[in-house]
């Protein structure tokens, strides 16, 4: 604390860029994909060092943090009445400010515990990817949470732009690029040209809604109540959008709504396709609507280059084929789509001119 206060007092003597260089000696610049389902952290010079579920467990009365990340997610649906398990973000925005700040602070400390000259003085410069459709108040909440957690600067960029940069697409060129990022809480679609978003949409229909659709389908068809984690496991294991060459099966266990007793059933991938169909069609409908709003010159570029998919939702087998059929355009899945946003955040940390061009907010 004494060292930090001494450095702050230098602010009245030294220009700000000298202060930033001083803090830079003690901390690592950090890129964060603050997702509804998962939080990924990229550190300059090291790459992705943290990939954890966005979950936190704390004591209901004392608010003491008991677990963060994977260990907290394992508690969901299993914790006693004295412990609350929270997903701090819902639909891509902060639902619990204190929990989000605690989670960010925990990850920033973890990054700096692994090395550095003064690991106990983390004051990193942070770039965070957020949904494009959030309000100014929601943006401020994210920036404030980052600063509260120890960041000396918090820059916000839109997730579709970060995903496009992370996928290696030329966002600063005059050609149109169409990126679709299907995450846990939001699906983002944007047409990018000359370093900016020409047309974009952000809908709060994504992975979470797919999980809810599966749970609802099983409840209505089999009178079986599934937990949130089980529905997600079904989606990841046998979920698909187009017909598979070989159908898959998965045995789920839940509570029978008629008898109240445990019950097991075998689900097929065909049933999960049926459950997911309305959600997938809504996402595709918004992709088509975005194309309809795109200027003709950029549509011609997209027809030539195709549509690029990122985010966990793009891993559903067959989703690229269904989108290609609906839009009559080639559709490609980005390399390692789960990490596109955080890699994009990391890339702009090393390119301040690009960061100045694309950032939508800066918190101090």
From TrEMBL:
One of its GO terms (molecular function) is ATP binding. Keywords: ATP-binding, Cell shape, Cytoplasm, Nucleotide-binding. Its main location: cytoplasm. Pfam families: MreB_Mbl. GO terms for cellular component: cytoplasm. ATP binds at residues 36-38, 184-186, 232-235, 312-315. The keyword Protein biosynthesis does not apply. Forms polymers. Forms membrane-associated dynamic filaments that are essential for cell shape determination. Acts by regulating cell wall synthesis and cell elongation, and thus cell shape. A feedback loop between cell geometry and MreB localization may maintain elongated cell shape by targeting cell wall growth to regions of negative cell wall curvature. This is Cell shape-determining protein MreB. It comes from Candidatus Woesebacteria bacterium GW2011_GWA1_39_8. The gene is mreB.
